[in-house]
Amino acid sequence: MTQKIRQNLAARPDILVIADIIPPNCKILDLGCGDGSLLALLRKEKNVYGSGIEISQEKIIDCVSSGVPVVQGNLNNGLKEFPDKSFDYVVLSQTLQAVKRPDQLLEEMMRVGKKAIVSIINIGYYSSRLQIMFMGKMPVTADLPHYWYNTPNIHLGTIRDFRNLCKEKNINIVSEIPIGVSHEKLLAQLMPNLFAPTCVFVIE
Q1: pLDDT tens, 135-191?
Q2: Which of 107, 100, 96, 76 lies closest to 162, judged by CA?
Q3: What's the CATH number where 102 sits?
Q4: Is pLDDT of 1 > 80?
Q5: How far is CA 158 from CA 91, 100, 122, 184, 197, in A?
Q6: Domain boundaries, position 48
Q7: How many domains, the chain?
């Protein structure tokens, strides 16, 4: 069962990295949990108690059919229904760029969770830079498949931008895991802002 979930998540290596980071028997909140695949995997592999927040009715139905606890909610409204430090980890995967105020959501995650795990799409990835430089248009990549006029992403940033935001908010970056494509993994580790299309941060 868990092997099948992992196979289905092969296109989202950041989620698999997040699953490997989270320790057993903890309590997590998955923001923008989608179809609940991460929570389903963690419940099977690590006996994690988790619940999700999702805005899409269709994806909520997917969560329920998988037995994943989920509530419908809009992350732009914050997390005021959750008490301080009520979760061991709060997870946000490739969603920060789609909310109205990423800085405020990050603050709420820090309030609600003892730690947080955030994966971001890096607009500083060299492929995106080259499209802007030589084609003069907003990039379209595997991680950014939409065009400028129909994208849900309204606050794209780089790995360096995220580091700077954490510094501004006095948030400690516990670890940073750049994720490179197969032939660029070493370069992604050496120069993540240029060669990592996505990156996972553990923060507190």
Answers
A1: 999 999 988 999 999 999 999 999 999 999 999 999 999 999 999 988 889 999 999
A2: 96
A3: 3.40.50.150
A4: no
A5: 19, 17, 5, 18, 9
A6: 2-203
A7: 1
